[in-house]
Specification:
By secondary structure, the protein is α/β, with parallel strands linked by helices. About 60% of the residues lie in helices and about 10% in strands.
């Protein structure tokens, strides 16, 4: 009987221990659940804060970009509203031209024209008639193409056979704006300057206009150079006869 009571007592104690352990486990789970909810709340708060910061950052970035865009647009509008000819742009072309222009005669050979280019380190040579008036112009490209297409020595080819006879020129009293317009319309990078009798006084190049920003004023120089580059960069029509046999 005593032994049975002892066993019952042990079983009761064991059940009490199990119950206590269960309570402790439930309490621990409850504490863990509370901690998890607290941390979840903290995480949600952190995410909300981060989202707000991102929203503010994006809004600020968009605002800054909008201001920059408006400033750029205003600058372009101001630039495009520049008058076609200002007091600075009215500088005569003779003030920036390269004085003197190397010339040859129509009956000269391409060999002589090439020699003049080599000696003067230039890419073009003017062609003058017996009266000294400019009647054509020949470039290093003209010489190269003639040598290839004709298949003859340069000494056998006359300047008058390959020179450009339609020469675009302007007076030394013309403005830089006017000279730039002529160069753009004709799609040329060099423009001979002549006197009233058609005699060559000098030559002006695209580089001359670009390098004389101090005379033109920076904005005018940039505007004119941009116009020239756009004009002379247009693709020219392909020649109808481009083969060596056709040239012969």
């Amino acid at each position: 009987m005593a032994e049975r009571q002892t066993r019952l007592s042990l079983v009761k104690e064991a059940l009490e221990d199990i119950g206590a352990a269960g309570e402790a486990a439930r309490l621990q789970l409850h504490l863990l659940s509370m901690q998890a909810r607290r941390r979840t709340g903290e995480l949600e708060t952190s995410l909300d804060t981060l989202e707000q910061k991102l929203d503010r950052g994006i809004e600020q970035a968009m605002h800054t970009a909008s201001l920059k865009t408006k400033q750029l647009t205003q600058t372009l509008q101001d630039f495009l509203r520049l008058p076609a000819q200002t007091a600075e742009a009215a500088v005569p072309i003779r003030s920036i031209m390269t004085e003197g222009i190397c010339c040859c005669r129509p009956e000269d050979s391409l060999n002589l024209a090439a020699q003049i280019m080599w000696d003067t380190d230039s890419g073009s040579v003017g062609v003058t008639n017996a009266e000294g008036r400019l009647c054509g112009i020949i470039t290093d490209r003209d010489i190269c193409m003639a040598a290839y297409l004709r298949g003859q020595p340069l000494s056998n080819i006359r300047v008058q056979d390959v020179m450009t006879k339609e020469v675009h020129t302007c007076s030394g009293d013309e403005t830089i704006e006017r000279a730039a317009t002529l160069m753009g319309n004709a799609q040329v990078r060099r423009l001979p300057i002549t006197d009233a009798e058609g005699r060559a006084l000098g030559i002006v190049s695209l580089a001359d206009i670009a390098l004389n920003a101090g005379i033109l004023g920076q904005r005018n120089a940039e505007r004119l150079t941009f116009q020239l580059l756009r004009a002379v960069s247009k693709r020219r029509p392909e020649p109808l006869q481009s083969t060596r046999e056709a040239a012969e």
